[in-house]
Every structure is written in structure tokens, then in C-alpha cells.
Design goal:
It contains 2 helices and no strands. With 62 residues, the protein is mainly alpha-helical. α1 (3-21) packs antiparallel against α2 (27-61).
Length: 62
């Protein structure tokens, strides 16, 4: 699995959990789920940035 697929999976998972949080009645559980979605999005952004930086570095070397 390449980095783009991993980023897509992380964002898909974050959306799934965010949608799931709407169905949960317990506020603490919702808070934890939303914290998890924020962490997944942050990981996706970091991985996408890393991928972009590597791509730019490869282009500079060519």
C-alpha cells in the first residue's frame, strides 16, 4: 500500500468515526471519538506532507 492509499484510508476512517459519533448518546464517548478523528486527520496530513516533500525532493534531484 502506498502513502496516498494510506492517507485516503486514514481520512475515510476519520469520516466513519465522526459519522458514528452522531449516533452515540454518551458525551464522553463522543468526545473521545472526535479526538480520535482529529488524530487520524493529523496523521493523514503529516503523511501527505511527507509524501509531497519526498516528491519535491525527487524532482529536485532529477
Amino acid at each position: 500500500m502506498d502513502q496516498k492509499q494510506t492517507v485516503a484510508r486514514l481520512l475515510e476512517k476519520a469520516k466513519k468515526y465522526r459519522d458514528f459519533a452522531r449516533w452515540v448518546g454518551d458525551r464522553e464517548t463522543v468526545r473521545r471519538i472526535l479526538a480520535l478523528t482529529a488524530e487520524l486527520k493529523q496523521r493523514a496530513r503529516a503523511l501527505a506532507k511527507l509524501n509531497e516533500d519526498l516528491t519535491n525532493e525527487i524532482r529536485d534531484d532529477i
